[in-house]
Design a protein that fits this description.
Length: 90
């Protein structure tokens, strides 16, 4: 999770190659393919990573502001990850 004040701490994700997932807590997973851009507001619990049958390359940027920080949370469980569709099923 990313933190910040005065408009800072948002994360911008840009998929550059491969195929991946983004999921915010309580929301459906979003498929990420090259060119996909996702803005994650500061304070949003989320994860992003490769699909089970692909590699995934992306840029992750944080918007500048006051009190910007990063907090690593628990890993995505095998149960949650295993429920996601494969690359061809997004």
């Amino acid at each position: 999770m990313h933190h910040g004040e005065d408009g800072g701490g948002d994360q911008i994700l840009l998929c550059t190659a491969g195929s991946g997932w983004f999921q915010a807590e309580g929301a459906d997973p979003v498929s990420m393919e090259p060119g996909t851009v996702i803005r994650v507001p500061a304070g949003t619990k989320h994860w992003h990573g490769a699909k089970s049958d692909s590699w995934f390359s992306h840029l992750a940027l944080i918007t500048p502001g006051v009190g910007v920080s990063n907090e690593w949370l628990e890993p995505v469980s095998d149960e949650v990850y295993g429920q996601l569709p494969g690359r061809g099923e997004a």
